[in-house]
Amino acid sequence: PPRSTLFPYTTLFRSIKIKEEMNLLEQDIMYLPGVGPRRKDLLNNELGVATYGDLLEYFPYKYVDRTKIYRISELTGDMPFVQIKGHILSFESHELSPRKKRLVAHFTDGTTICDLVWFNGVSYAAKTYLIGREYVVFGKPGVYNGRIQFTHPDLDDASQLQLNDMGMQPYYVTTERMKKAGVTSRSVEKLTKTLIGKLSQTLPETLPPYITGPLHLISRDEALRKIHYPKTVEDTQRARLRLKFEELFYVQLNILRYASDHRRKYRGYVFGKIGDRFNGFYAHHLPFALTNAQKRVMHEIREDVRSGRQMNRLLQGDVGSGKTLVALMAMLIALDNGFQACIMAPTEILAEQHLQTIQAFLQGMEVRCELLTGIVKGKQRKAVLEGLADGSVDILVGTHAVIEETVQFCRLGLAVVDEQHRFGVAQRAKLWAKSSNPPHILVMTATPIPRTLAMTIYGDLDVSVIDELPPGRKPIVTLHKYDNQLTSLYQGIRKQIQQGRQAYIVFPVIKESEKKDLKDLESGFEALKEVFPDLRLSRVHGKMKSKEKEEEMRRFVSGETQILVATTVIEVGVNVPNASVMVILDAQRFGLSQLHQLRGRVGRGAKQSFCILVTKYELSRETRKRIDIMCETNDGFEIAEADLKLRGPGDLEGTQQSGMAFDLKIADIVRDGQLVQMAREQAQKIIDADPTCDRPEYAMLWERLRALRKTNVNWAAIS
Ligand code: ADP
Ligand code: MG
């Protein structure tokens, strides 16, 4: 997507002087000295930089301290990037092959001699650098034939170097195409410095003093200059802080304004009473006491749905914390108030399991539950659709099929979305359109995400957390074993089974051909039958017919089989409290959240459970970290946080679809968590003080927000 123009029109800054400056920033990059047609093309297409303003917002990703000049005699081969100052004594050129040349410049600063070496751009270097002229050389020293050498160093004419160039040198991301055309980070640096030289006026401010003042943020003008042209480490820090905060602040302001608009626009259905359905269930069908966390969350939901506001709530809770039950009770409240409810799962298997769970809970009660997924077809589908339209279906369980246009409810009052990762703002909006008034919405996730990230991705939702597991559960013990320890592992499994427990064994792939040297379920199953000839084994994988799969699952659930051999189809939903062992083979193949989900299949009963991660011996550092984290903690939040740090938020499922997060230019939602929090607090204050966005003292913020929304694709998507 094209980057935004930095300073779109605004009525805020009336002074003529500033207007001129703004026009300068809208100037086509082509007019900047040093930019010809070829560079214009590269900047446009590779970096999305079309104007002066864009270039000003093309921030460096790191800095190298160039304040110190080393003596050649003190250099060693293991130093990082350094700079030296001196002159070239002579050149030496070698033909490595008819097409390959090597150019060596012997360089001295009076202390001793080192070599500067080029393999690429040989003729350019030979032409450009002159013997006897004083240069500042910047590069990574190495040792070759006992002599210090720099390969492809940066050379600057010492007489042309301004004092300021000797501060912190910014580094800019450049692409392969740019590098091929000889446009390097250094070239970008020169362009931004030229541009800053042209900015004679103060750049307009975009945050008001009542925000910048108390937080000690430097002005936008100072920040934009220093981010490209810092003299000290502190300069870079202060500039980054200011620009990061600003970026996060407007993201939060956008989200909160959206949520507050939404709140004012839509009235929520009022679920004023608790009736027979809920009370009957609570008194006669609930097989156990609710945990305190479940009670608290029920209370929060209850307050929402009777307030007259439309509920938009995210329910976070680790695997097995009992979210489904909370959802069911919320649905019963909807029913008690004359409404229908639906619950959506990401896969058909999960939807079917939800239906079973719900039907089991409601056995003996007069509640009509129906399933709607892609496999419900023909007559059956027609009957479900009719039942929805005439109001005779109370609870609909389904997949995304539920939000298709052909599905019309009579009076949908509550929609529950399980495992929201594939369910963003756009999908939620579709749900709102399902009835004249939007239904209340409860989004449930078992993959907790750190709070500050949730604030951004699901920033328009209120958050409830179930932070307590049902009583009597012992923390799962997680162990790491290597492939060659399988024999003792199998003995361990046998011991558990002798005590009456059951075990899962998970394979990464079904068939051998899929991936060489990975354990596959088909041959693994045969081998396991030989290891456990006296035991009964079930087998489940994604390529089986759903009838067959169900039958195999049923045998395991009923205790008829002791071992379930499976692929990750059992990842979510399956509930067998008697199972106490989860073995994951080739665990290096799985991501952290997947491992955590799989592990969540055990530890559901009162007995001690075990999760054994089996890997080959050779592991990458990242994999080893994943395994270590799994062995250290059962806490889903900790794992989610670690996962984010390992993978970065860009990979996180849901960030793309969410519509709320977009490519941030400088802030990092994970690393800058504290700033996200600060930004959110500030934004909330503004929204509270000016909910209808028309008070003059906040006009500048709303103008800026409108302008940003106009220019940024992702922001526009949610307006
Ligand atoms: P989640 O959806 O959060 O992963 P589930 O709703 O599937 O968790 O609950 C896991 C298991 O715990 C289910 O068997 C459920 O019946 C049971 N459970 C839920 N709440 C309680 C409770 N308060 N006490 C005991 N068991 C509970
Ligand atoms: Mg669940």
Q: How does the SSE layout of this entry go?
A:
Elements: H1 16-26, H2 37-47, H3 52-56, E1 62-65, E2 82-95, E3 101-108, E4 113-118, H4 122-128, E5 134-139, E6 141-144, E7 147-151, E8 154-157, E9 168-171, H5 176-180, H6 185-198, H7 209-215, H8 220-228, H9 233-265, H10 276-285, H11 292-306, E10 312-317, H12 323-336, E11 340-344, H13 348-361, E12 369-372, H14 378-390, E13 395-398, E14 412-418, H15 425-432, E15 440-445, H16 451-457, E16 462-466, E17 477-482, H17 486-498, E18 502-506, H18 521-531, E19 537-540, H19 546-557, E20 563-566, E21 579-584, H20 592-599, E22 610-615, H21 621-632, H22 636-647, H23 655-658, H24 673-689, H25 699-711, H26 713-717
Parallel strand pairs: 4-7, 10-15, 10-16, 11-13, 11-14, 12-13, 14-15, 17-22, 18-20, 18-21, 19-20, 21-22
Antiparallel strand pairs: 1-9, 2-3, 2-5, 3-4, 5-8, 6-7
The structure holds adenosine-5'-diphosphate (ADP) and magnesium ion.
